[in-house]
């Protein structure tokens, strides 16, 4: 680097640090004046430190890379300063950066052979400083390389584990689907056996009991069928389920569709399996009761089913405009197996049941999602 390109200065001072001669000044610092003590040209905050700097030079013959604040063109700058003792005089060299100080003193060494040995010590210091920095940087790069390799290996291992987990989840889903499929098949077998057994019964009341049990098995089988056909193994589309169940029961119990209508008002709602099975059985009982008992002797009317969610609460309503629920019958304390199931299963899903006897019969069941 040419000396003219170095932003630096060189001062020759007496034994007490007073400037004797300005050897070099490429910074254009106005405060450099002969006869002025070196500490006095610095910022007030650096004065005490500069006095220690002069003292150290006297004690150790040379000091290297001290930082001082210097007022320069209306602002403070940091200068890197070194000094050495030559023939009872103090030589002071400074620059804005460590590199500039290094190159400046190297040039000064070529100019003044008398100061060569002392300057070599300073150069050696800066050279060692630079080598030390290079060594530190090399260590940092080596450590970064090691950490990068560890991270790469960890990412590979994580990818491998994710692939394994994906396979395990797929296998788990297949097993769960198979379980739902087999449960559905077993329930349908039970339903078929009940149907076959009912053919050997003579009285209609016993046949009706078998038919109700058969429908209960079908209502549960329908849920398991929905689950093994669904991508979601924990929840089912309850609108589709209610629609299928209600229409199956409608075809079973309503012999004349022109006399009794089926009205559905179902929101698109998914239900957890833990609530779906008891709710399906409740629906089966309430729909069956309306279709069997609400319209005797050719009476016309309609069975209405609505289901939806309001905030965090599910609301199921099954109603008819038929002859109404018997006034002398307490639905919470009845011997009817169907109503006992409705009450027990409503408690199972932590729900509430209400009966409205005005204009027919309307059961309202409210419950929240299980676990909330």
TrEMBL record:
Gene3D superfamilies: Histidine kinase-like ATPase, C-terminal domain, PAS domain
Cited PROSITE patterns: HIS_KIN
Positions of the Histidine kinase domain: 178-371
Keyword ATP-binding among UniProt keywords: no
Gene Ontology molecular-function annotations: kinase activity
Coiled-coil boundaries: 137-178
InterPro entries: HATPase_C_sf (IPR036890), HATPase_dom (IPR003594), His_kinase_dom (IPR005467), Sig_transdc_His_kin_sub2_dim/P (IPR011495)
Keywords: Coiled coil, Kinase, Transferase
Protein name: Sensor histidine kinase
